[in-house]
Amino acid sequence: MLSMNSSVLIIKSPPPSKEINIFSNNMTTKKIIYKYNFYVGHPSLTLLPNKEIIKATTELLTPKERPFDKDPDNLHPLNYGSDLGSKWVRSNITDLINSFYHNTSLTNPEFINLTNGASYGILNILELTACPIYTKQVFIISPTYFLINDIFVDAGYSGKLCSIKETEGGSSIDFKKLLNKLEILESQGVDNNNNNNNNANHRGTKIASDQQKHIYKYIMYLIPTFSNPSGSTYSTETRIKLIEIARKYDMLIISDDVYDMLNYDTDATKIPPRIVHLDRLTIQNHQKNSTFGNSISNCTFSKLIAPGLRCGYQETATSLLATCLSKGGANHSGGSPSQLNANIIGTLITNGDFQNILQNLKRTYSERCDVMYKSILKYLPPGTLYNKQLGGYFSWCVLPDEYNCKEICEICKYEFGVLLANGNDFEVYGDENKEGWGKNSVRLSCSYLESDEIENGIRLWGEACKMYINSKHK
Question: What is the pTM assigned to this prediction?
């Protein structure tokens, strides 16, 4: 319960919450299940396409033979896959991309490398395109997807992370800070005592089959369309400027394009092109067969079908980089890491069920976003800043200055069973990178709660705000 003490709100003890027992190694632990969980970023169970997955798997595996079973570019769905992944699946994916972005033939299968999801996809990118000894800096747009920090730390970039804030209401980034930082790093040159270039080469300039690879001097990570956590979409001008900077400074842009097809109130023709498409379009003709480009579109079907499939893809500006990503030692040894599930997804695209699943998700999430927007207007304090969510999973809400969001999130959790994602969780690691998102900001997810739960959760959040402000005025 909560008590008031000299205008300070004190949490005495958590109220009863729903708990489940977890049994492991003859020990029992308890896990709290919050009734209104706005934190999690996965679909509610009612949206998981069980029947469609069963149908596609049956269609795929029932025939004794498939036309592509012995084709080295495809292979049997239950066998080792080709390095890039089944070509017929990559062809289906390119058709999806070109149709969504109204491209005639901008993307083709040679630009696609299949993966086992966006998270492992980033590890694969870092393993094959960067080196902690040589790569000088990793720029991460802030606020950021909170789990990305650990991926970069695991890959050896602790201490090399630099936050770059979103600006102009989320349509751009702090280019001034980015360019200043790049100029400082460039002025430092190469530390010849450490033989950075040689160490980078020692890591390998070639991969399987003598395929060349390129180690980039800088890395940037962002989610440019319906961003996690802010919900922002960067303008075409911002994307073009990023490509120009990336080419000048030998920087690779890792663009997590996991939400762009979940557009609710935005016509697809109004969504800016993917960074990788702009990169490809602006490569000089004489370089198309010799350059790796400066961007990778890192994608997943977790948000578009179901996360348990653990399957995604990387799209690159040229075939050189896609091939490079597919020829790492582990991938070349085992083949495409999600061979069966990629073939199931290819079947879902072929039989039309993918589009049905996607439309159902968009319709459901759009309804939930509408409820969330109306509930925030109705229940949260005047002066709250919130834009209606137009796509993706997440949106960003900013309370007025007099409301301490971190304390209010604690009230919500312990007094009302409402779990909110405080802005502190979306900082880039490192004290020098802190932007202070936690004082007034919260990330909200539309994917997990049903519409009535969203309204009730926002209503209780409003009650927590009243409780907080009343305690301050005593």
Answer: 0.91
